[in-house]
What we know:
The protein contains nine helices and 20 strands. By secondary structure, it is of the alpha+beta class. The protein has two domains: 231 residues, Rossmann fold; 112 residues, CATH 2.40.50.140. A six-stranded mixed β-sheet has the order 6-7-8-3-9-10, sandwiched between helices. A five-stranded antiparallel β-sheet has the order 13-12-11-14-20. A five-stranded antiparallel β-sheet has the order 15-19-16-17-18, with no helix packed on it. α2 packs across α3, α2 runs parallel beside α4 and α3 packs across α4. The site of adenosine-5'-triphosphate has 13 residues, from α1.
Amino acid sequence: MAGLELKKINKVYPNGFHAVKGIDLEIQDKEFLVFVGPSGCGKTTSLRMIAGLEEISDGELYIGENMVNDVLPKDRNIAMVFQNYALYPHMTVYENMAFGLKLRKVPKATITEKVEKAAKILGIENLLKRRPKQLSGGQRQRVALGRAIVREPEVFLMDEPLSNLDAKLRVQMRAELIKLHQELDTTFIYVTHDQTEAMTMGTRICVMNNGLIQQVDTPREIYNHPANMFVASFIGAPQMNFMDGKVVEEGGKLFVEFEGYKKQLADEKAEMAKKSGYVGKEVVIGCRPEDIEIDSEEGFEAVIDVLELLGSETYIYFNAFGKTYIAKEGKNFTKGRGDKIKISFKSNVHAFDKENENSIF
Ligand code: ATP
């Protein structure tokens, strides 16, 4: 079993592109760590450097106690599962899963035992004689996982392994991967651009942008206390609303003010605003759709633009002061397009620095 440590890891591609910019990260043994971020942010590059498939330009990578910068991929005791499964089309499921062990000259009886055990974990015992083209996408994905499992690696690396599956199967495989992680009790490192996958699967999430780590923490902490506007907008769907406002003091109490509407800050947030010197200053107010109250007695006026009915929830796009914002309500929301509403914030408002976009509270 092994944890990993990335120390000031950089990747500069031969064409000069600086894809990963000095990232520091400790990944605990048995953790399910998810790299998430928009396309091109450097998450696959980071994973491939861990796998040894991409050379590290600068910095040190440790697996367990050992610096592995110069250790070949096959000697790193890791297994990687790719988005396209990378199965051999002319081999059966059994042969695909056994192939890596055969190359390592593992005795035949041990191979059979390991393949059968992995097939059982994944529920594909009855598919062992089929070839990949006789399988559905979800079944192929299981075979690719099986091939990794039989190697009993210390670390599983997965690069968008669910993105070729349809939406329903993706949800099902998500739950299966969580279960698999618990069963194997091994370190998982997972790359996705999908914030829902990151939130639901990761024990911790590493949010990346432009080759830099933005925040590493549990899904709950990242959602409740995003480090900056990028994280706040990337994690959470629909995304957080941002409004230009101010922190003001009145009668010894602190408020955020947006276009004349004021929301008093909870003690903890007021304390943070004071400590960091933002009283009286302009800020960007952040308010998640579920933290917006509609039809409140006090608040600012808005008009409903668009309603999206999702069954259990309703998304309400409303217009206020020339901009569109979004709120989330239950399934029994009765107002319609063009209706006038009043908007107020629940107590969970955020604020960010206008210049550097870092979180204030
Ligand atoms: P995606 O979700 O689209 O795969 P990603 O976050 O995984 O995105 P990477 O594949 O790590 O992104 O790529 C990071 C950046 O490095 C991108 O801008 C990409 O264009 C660039 N890049 C990747 N491979 C090379 C290469 N071989 N040479 C030059 N630049 C590259």
